[in-house]
Amino acid sequence: MTGYYTAAQIRAAEEATGDLLSGGVLMVRAANAVAGTVLARLRRRGAGVYGRRVLLVVGAGNNGGDALFAGATLVRRGVRVEALLLDPDRAHRAGLSAFRRVGGRVTDGVPQTLDVAVDAVVGLGGRGPLRPQAAAVFDVIAQTGATVVAVDLPSGIDPDTGVVHQPSVRADVSVTFGAPRLAHLLAGPQCGEVVVADIGIDLPESSVDSPSNTEVAQWWPLPGPHDDKYSQGVVGIVAGSATYPGAAVLSTAAAVAATSGMTRYIGPAAEQVLAVCPEVVTAAGVGAAGRVQAWAIGPGIGTGDQAHELLADVLAADLPTLIDADGLTVLARDPGLLAGRAAPTLLTPHAGEFARLAGADPTPDRLTAVRALAERMNATVLLKGRITLVADPDGRVSGNDAGSSWAATAGAGDVLTGIAGALLSAGLPARAAGVAAARVHGLAAARASGGAPIGASALRAAVAPALRELSDLRE
Ligand SMILES: NC(=O)C1=CN([C@@H]2O[C@H](COP(=O)(O)OP(=O)(O)OC[C@H]3O[C@@H](n4cnc5c(N)ncnc54)[C@H](OP(=O)(O)O)[C@@H]3O)[C@@H](O)[C@H]2O)[C@@H](O)CC1
Ligand SMILES: Nc1ncnc2c1ncn2[C@@H]1O[C@H](COP(=O)(O)OP(=O)(O)O)[C@@H](O)[C@H]1O
Ligand SMILES: [K+]
After folding, report:
1. What is the pLDDT of residue 475?
2. Where exactly are the structural domains of the chain?
3. How far apart are CA 423 and CA 180, in angstroms?
4. Mutate to test the pocket of ligand 1, among 25, 92, 93, 122 (most ligand atoms within 8 A of CB)
5. Does an H or E element contain 173, and which?
6. Taking the CB of the first residue and of the last residue of the chain, which one, N or C, has fewer CB atoms within 10 A?
7. Can you give the pTM of this predicted structure?
């Protein structure tokens, strides 16, 4: 499990070491990590590091100090390093003298040919967008095709909310210290590869995390010698309508693919569902479904009285329940439907459905928004998007970066519903079910795509190959 931290938590941990940050041992370790990453990226761009060109873009604080000490190390390795000081009078003193002492040069402009640019404008102290002077420098850097290495995190991104201000730096790699910051999850695509350097600080357990693929693989229910169809979970899917039979097919077929448990289907699209998945057991209504261990309701069911009745019936069963799509629209009109529930509830809104439930858009601060809604609804809330956030009512959050955006296609949410519903029926807690489903969904999208646009059917078909890849990681 990777934990993500606020700037205040990181600063507290750093203070607890008793190190004098400015030029102290922590900064030396941080600078060594930055130098190591720059050298690795130089090698990746071609043979050797001697004579290659690196520009440090240095701001007013310790973030700039890290870069200047790193620059000194790089100069000693034969790299041609220049430092562009955005605020020369406030540049980190000890760092600047170390850099100058070994022959590092200060410059006013961006060299025409450049291998690596180091973004050391701001780190944990950053607030708001990149200021105009720095923005102009990075515009020129973009034209050189240089690899951008961010110190700590790309400047112009809020460390705690991950809000990507405009303008801001987009990095190929971010080198951070001790542990990742919240921004590395919340603004993952802007940070590029995240390298976490051990600098010897201790952090408490974080309330925001993301599981590794190996952890997701360990959680995933796979049949053992004593399992049968019931022991692995029976999920009841309530989805689809005469207008939207596809939602029923996609969510049910995804549930079938996700686990070896049993999938039941309730709704008017039984014929279409059975044509694709003959193993699905259909029933006339929620009450007639027989044994079910979790419900997943909502995709394509409509938002009228009949949908309301279906949702009320499902929730009254007080089994683990996932509510998606139209089910969420119905719930937004009548939140009292959740009253008195003891079983876990997992709500899976996209931004629009979220706004209906919460009364406001989840952006820009998605983490705060998803936590607040989970607390208010007393339910686990999975906010969809490239970065999926799954919040429990107690404020703990698990996140997943899909790694690509190929899943941004109609019907992809129905597939997620099926996968997460199957996991709930197998007994996974709501937050784990949500984040594990999002992980496999993202892996399946990348696999199905291979670089070309995909539809939700292709995504669903790639669930099995994605799971095969994951199950190879089980110990
Ligand atoms: N803690 C740790 O464990 C370790 C921390 N270390 C390092 O220290 C870094 C934190 O350093 P820090 O506290 O000096 O703040 P930092 O980010 O350099 O900002 C400084 C100044 O920038 C300014 N500024 C603000 N916003 C701006 C903007 N948008 N655009 C332009 N300028 C802006 C603002 O000054 P202002 O101009 O507003 O007066 C602010 O005071 C951390 O990220 C890591 O790299 C490692 O060395 C070792 C381990
Ligand atoms: N930009 C994106 N990158 C990666 N995944 C995305 C992106 N946008 C949406 N997704 C994922 O695709 C699915 C879309 O769900 P949803 O919006 O409910 O679509 P639909 O209602 O058409 O099925 C969700 O799992 C969501 O997390
Ligand atoms: K930075």
Report:
1. 78
2. 2-206, 213-471
3. 28
4. 122
5. strand 173-177
6. C
7. 0.97
In CATH, what number does 213-471 get?
3.40.1190.20
Distance CA 234, CA 292 (A): 5
Average of pLDDT values for 369-396?
98
138 CB burial (10 A radius; 0-12, 13-18, 19+):
buried
Residue 307 phi, psi (nearest 5) = -65, -40
For 2-206, the fitting CATH number among 3.30.230.10, 3.40.50.10260, 3.20.20.150, 3.40.50.2300 is: 3.40.50.10260
Residue 240 CA, ligand 2 centroid: distance in Å = 18
Give the mean pLDDT of the chain. Answer: 97
Whether 415 and 324 have beta carbons less than 8 Å apart is answered as no
Rounded to two decimals, the ipTM of the complex is 0.96
* Residues within 5 A (CB) of ion ligand 3: 119, 123, 150-151, 155
Q: What is the pLDDT of residues 331-379, one digit of tens each?
A: 999 999 999 999 999 999 999 999 999 999 999 999 999 999 999 999 9
Q: Please check whether residue 262 is in contact with residue 230, taking contact to mean a CB–CB distance below 8 angstroms.
A: yes
